[in-house]
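Sequence, please.
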């Protein structure tokens, strides 16, 4: 199988695409053809998480052998998650909640970032790469820690993480700045997440153009969802949830299931679209946005316009105005029109806006719809669901739950509706306590304990211990100095 860029005819093998993260023309890698010989969604859906993961990764990365894939899946996940089946599906009210936050850093990013380092190590082998792989990551809060944890002390790699100063929760910050490992580096930047993400993308582009890495014995790669190796493992839990609904007797294979996905970079929801392409009977994919509702506006109007205020919300991991992975969807919906995609991305960069043709928008709407909820609406449903059912969700999941309710009203869907839960409520104790009507004043670690006392739920161990760990990464830099920070760490 060959991968190709969304912006030109540039090609790469699966292992090359995983190692590079982003195509040389700034585009994102996708399979050149979506044909997967030997893959049967009906067979795969019956397997456990490990079995599904092996099937999906083998289908997308056939350069690896079946046994290599099985081995790396075991190594990635065994003993790392709180729950035996990694991503449980729980009935709550009239919906199902797909819990993706039972991993080591309490956010759904763990599902992909537990396995990406293993994919990279294998890819280094396949490509005969001996240069050090330097992972550059921009984070709105959750990717950073999950990537640091995944790559900590992985031989042949360094990991550098940039997060927006003041733009992540105290717990998220503590998770990153206390990170151990000789190969881990973290800095805050003075700016928001889009500044961090744009800064990282610019480093890739200028370093490639100016050949900056030549002679350093290192090469850059990405752990953001621009990397296809990050996206592929996220397909797995859509199959897993579908299988759970089959086992519970709720559906038979072939019945459509709707998924509601709290979205930022459009990565998680795009993985659902990939699952559909792979043959999973996905009904609607409902895109849920917070006050930064650029994606739901786009699905409504066909115009993607980032010339708007940026809001810091109670669901910071979705505070994003430039959604990288939408580019992949546009490429697929335009049937591989790389010139059109390159044009839209150029307009976005220079003018801050682009509009897609009506036919493309229509096609998108056959699968996708979108709803947004601001902090007040999300808090309201968080509190209500807790009072009505006893289920406590985090603010990102609450945005999705609110979208699910609106979607049900509009569509009158008869399909099971699965809401993806992307973070533990303990990661965002302050807005969660406020939403359930409890005192939310005090420092964030006091709030962790209060949330536990008030709800009777246990604090996840990896969050409880943060309070006593020493801070190792205190750097805060202007965004203009990101490139220099990278070079210093590469050479150091
Ligand atoms: C990253 C993240 C999201 C958004 O996921 P995308 O793949 O960027 O759409 C939603 N919720 C949480 C908790 C996250 O960490």
């Amino acid at each position: 199988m060959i991968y190709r860029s969304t912006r030109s005819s540039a090609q790469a093998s699966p292992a090359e695409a995983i190692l590079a993260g982003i195509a040389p023309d700034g585009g994102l890698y996708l399979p050149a053809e979506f044909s997967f010989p030997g893959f049967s969604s009906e067979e795969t859906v019956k397997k456990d998480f490990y079995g599904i993961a092996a099937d999906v990764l083998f289908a997308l990365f056939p350069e690896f052998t079946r046994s290599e894939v099985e081995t790396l899946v075991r190594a990635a996940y065994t003993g790392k998650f709180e729950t035996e089946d990694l991503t449980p599906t729980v009935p709550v009210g009239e919906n199902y909640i797909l819990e993706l936050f039972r991993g080591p850093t309490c956010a759904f990013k763990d599902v992909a970032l537990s396995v990406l380092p293993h994919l990279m190590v294998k890819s280094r082998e396949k490509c005969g790469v001996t240069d050090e792989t330097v992972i550059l990551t921009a984070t709105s809060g959750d990717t950073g820690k999950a990537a640091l944890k995944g790559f900590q002390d992985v031989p042949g790699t360094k990991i550098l993480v940039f997060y927006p100063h003041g733009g992540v929760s105290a717990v998220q910050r503590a998770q990153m700045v206390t990170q151990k490992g000789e190969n881990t580096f973290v800095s805050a930047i003075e700016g928001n997440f889009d500044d961090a993400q744009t800064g990282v993308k610019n480093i890739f582009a200028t370093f490639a153009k100016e050949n900056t890495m030549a002679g350093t014995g290192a090469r850059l790669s990405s752990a953001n969802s621009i990397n296809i190796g990050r996206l592929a493992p996220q397909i797995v839990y859509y199959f897993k949830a579908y299988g759970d609904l089959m086992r519970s007797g709720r559906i038979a294979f072939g019945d459509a299931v709707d998924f509601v996905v709290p979205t930022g970079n459009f990565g998680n929801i795009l993985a659902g679209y990939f699952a559909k392409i792979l043959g999973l009977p996905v009904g609607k994919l409902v895109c849920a946005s917070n006050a930064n509702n650029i994606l739901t506006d786009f699905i409504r109007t066909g115009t993607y316009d980032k010339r708007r205020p940026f809001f810091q919300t109670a669901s910071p991991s979705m505070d994003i105005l430039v959604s990288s992975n939408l580019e992949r969807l546009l490429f697929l919906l335009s049937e591989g029109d790389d010139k059109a995609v390159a044009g839209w991305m150029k307009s976005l960069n220079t003018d801050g806006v682009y509009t897609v043709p009506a036919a493309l928008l229509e096609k998108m709407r056959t699968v996708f719809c979108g709803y947004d909820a601001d902090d007040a609406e999300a808090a309201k449903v968080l509190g209500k669901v807790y009072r009505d059912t006893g289920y406590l969700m985090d603010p990102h999941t609450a945005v999705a739950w609110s979208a699910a309710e609106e979607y049900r009203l509009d569509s009158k869907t008869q399909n099971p509706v699965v809401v993806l839960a992307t973070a533990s409520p303990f990661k965002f104790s302050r807005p969660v306590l406020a939403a359930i009507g409890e005192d939310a004043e005090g420092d964030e670690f006091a709030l962790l304990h209060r949330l536990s006392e008030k709800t009777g739920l246990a604090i996840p161990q990896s969050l409880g211990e943060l309070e006593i760990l020493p801070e190792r990464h205190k750097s805060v830099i202007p965004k203009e100095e990101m490139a220099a920070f990278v070079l210093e760490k590469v050479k150091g």
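Residues 105 and 146 are 6 Å apart (CA to CA).
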